[in-house]
Each structure stands twice: as structure tokens, then as C-alpha cells.
Write a structure and sequence with these properties.
The complex is a heterodimer of chains A (188) and B (135). With 188 residues, chain A is mostly helical. Chain A has helices at residues 2-7, 12-20, 22-30, 38-47, 59-81, 94-103, 125-144, 151-158, 162-187. The chains are: A mainly alpha (188), B mainly alpha (135). Chains A and B meet through helix 2, helix 3, helix 4, helix 5 and helix 6 of A and helix 1, helix 2, helix 3, helix 4 and helix 5 of B.
Chain lengths: 188, 135
């Protein structure tokens, strides 16, 4: 019975509050503001020279918790994988499937399109755009904006920060440009 | 250990709610489903109520220190627009924001190691050119 529940996806009205609870959880257990993208900075600070001011700080003291948190997220993914049945299909909106089929995507199993996100594809135009440039923009953009969907989109929005509202609207504007203009162009 | 356990819980929920999915991200930007918007809205509402309670009752953390709700720098806005747009472009390409990048690697998509390394390179580039960028 409990396994039946665990095998099912979480509804948004369950998942949202659970994610929102990360905000008080991290405040209570360690006086930390919920956020993830600063882990990229801390990871850089472990190896990059202190001559760059942005990386000249005590990463263990300031960022150790965030790197542990990020590692935990990865471990949480491993744990969750045990509850994902074989041949898992997300119950996507029919219109989304139609649009993506129009872009040339045919395999809708699992969490990400296997046609795009494969090791063979890393150095093709598609792979370089989706994985390498996409990744670089995530790291550069979140550090430039000083936060991501967690730090701005949830923590900052929950604290009614003007900066976070501007950032979150910009996240969505950038994402829509990619979805409506860049993805159809790259896949076709 | 408490931060690792918090992360495990968060990563588990990210996967089980399918918000780590590239497909779900496209569905969100195409405005075809309430799923992602519902997750965001209820997460923000929950966080908002929690922050109000923490402020109202001046709650302490487990070490007994009063919880500090830090604020972002609200005196500038350019960096939030420019950085936000750049992150948004990358978010829809990879189908993952920073949390899901880590969760996907654990959840059977080690290929996401590539965008994760990319993100660290991106953070390094930001640090290198920070002084030259308008904020």
C-alpha cells in the first residue's frame, strides 16, 4: 500500500508545500537561506585562485553547508530512482506532446528526451547548445542574478523581495525565448 | 549531516514531483499545464507563511541564535534582469534549474554531469569578469 503511493508521482499541491517547507527547515536547522546556485560558486572557490576576488573567501565556512545540501539532492535523486517504475511516462499535456513532436521529438519516456541528452550527442550542435552552452548559461546567469529558481523564485518571492520578483520574471522571459524560438530552430 | 539529509528530502521531492523533467519545463513555458505553476505558487505561499511566523515570533535556530532573514540587494535591478534572462535561456535548454541538475544525475541521468560542469564553468566566468559587468 505504502509502495503504491511511493510509486506514483506527487501532485503539485503536495509537492509545492513540501518544497516550500525547505525555507523554514534550513532557517531552523542552520540559519541558512534556501538556495542552490551558490554551490557553483563554492565549488569554484575550492579550486580557483584567490586572486579573483569573487572566489577569495573561506568556502568551507561560508559554503560548506550548501555543498553538502547539493550532494544530498543528488543522493535524494538516487533514492527516488528506486520508486520510479520501468517505462515511466510523465502525464504531459496532449498539446505539449503535439508541439514537441512538431519539433521532431519522438521518445517521451522517462524524464528527459533521450534523443537529445545522450553521450553521443555531447559534441553535436544540439548537444553543445542544450548541454554545454545551456549549462554555462545556468551558472553564469544565476551568479550574475545572485540566485536561481530556489533562492529568488521561492525564498526571495516568499520574502516579498523586489529583486527576486524582477529576477523571477526574467527567468521566465529567458525560458520562453528558448522554448518558442531557440529549441525549434536547433532541433529542426 | 543535517544539510545532507535536507538535500536528500528535497532531491527526492524534486524527482517524485517530476519538476526535474525537461518535458515538464517545456510544458510550463508553453502554458499547457498548471503542474509547475501550482508547485511554484504553493511553495511560495508555504515559504511566505513560514517567514511571517519566523518574523512574528522571532524564532531561533537549533543553536539558539535568532533566525536572520537576509534580503537581496534591492538597490540595483540590472543584474537581476540580465542574469535572469541568461539563466532562463539555459534553464529551458537543459530543462533543469540548479537543484534538478544535481537530482537528475542521481536519478539515472549521469549525462547531466555535462550541464553541471558547464554551470560551474559559467560561475567561474562570472567571477572572472564580475568587475567588468554592469550590476
Amino acid at each position: 500500500m505504502i509502495f503504491d503511493i511511493l510509486n506514483k508521482p506527487l501532485a503539485w499541491y503536495i509537492a509545492g508545500p513540501l518544497i516550500g517547507l525547505m525555507v523554514p527547515l534550513l532557517y531552523v536547522i542552520g540559519n541558512k537561506a534556501f538556495g542552490i546556485s551558490s554551490s557553483f560558486r563554492h565549488a569554484c572557490a575550492t579550486v580557483l585562485p584567490k586572486s579573483i576576488p569573487y572566489f577569495n573567501y573561506d568556502w568551507k565556512e561560508k559554503g560548506g553547508w550548501n555543498l553538502k545540501f547539493a550532494l544530498g539532492i543528488l543522493l535524494g535523486g538516487i533514492l527516488a530512482q528506486f520508486t520510479i517504475p520501468d517505462n515511466y511516462h510523465i502525464d504531459l499535456a496532449t498539446s505539449t506532446i503535439q508541439t514537441l513532436k512538431g519539433y521532431g521529438i519522438t521518445d517521451f519516456s522517462g524524464f528527459v528526451p533521450k534523443e537529445l541528452f545522450t553521450w553521443n550527442n555531447v559534441l553535436t550542435l544540439q548537444g553543445i547548445s542544450f548541454m554545454i552552452i545551456g549549462g554555462i548559461m545556468i551558472g553564469f546567469g544565476t551568479r550574475y542574478a545572485s540566485g536561481c529558481t530556489a533562492g529568488h523564485g521561492i525564498t526571495g518571492m516568499a520574502n516579498l523581495q523586489k529583486a527576486s520578483l524582477i529576477a523571477t520574471v526574467s527567468f521566465f522571459a529567458g525560458g520562453m525565448i528558448t522554448t518558442y524560438f531557440i529549441i525549434p530552430f536547433i532541433i529542426n | 549531516m543535517r544539510f545532507i539529509f535536507s538535500g536528500i528530502f528535497f532531491g527526492f521531492v524534486l524527482v517524485k514531483s517530476e519538476v526535474i523533467s525537461w518535458f515538464r519545463i517545456q510544458e510550463m513555458f508553453l502554458f499547457d499545464s498548471i503542474h509547475m505553476y501550482g508547485v511554484f505558487a504553493t511553495a511560495i505561499l508555504t515559504g511566505f507563511i513560514a517567514i511571517q511566523l519566523i518574523k512574528r515570533f522571532e524564532l531561533n535556530d537549533l543553536s539558539g541564535n535568532q533566525i536572520e532573514i537576509t534580503e537581496k540587494d534591492n538597490s540595483v535591478s540590472f543584474r537581476y534582469v540580465a542574469g535572469g534572462l541568461i539563466f532562463g535561456l539555459g534553464w529551458a535548454c537543459t530543462g533543469a534549474c540548479p537543484g534538478p541538475l544535481y537530482a537528475l544525475i542521481g536519478a539515472g541521468y549521469p549525462i547531466y554531469f555535462i550541464p553541471l560542469v558547464g554551470a560551474m564553468v559559467g560561475a567561474a566566468l562570472y567571477g572572472r569578469f564580475q568587475a567588468k559587468l554592469k550590476h
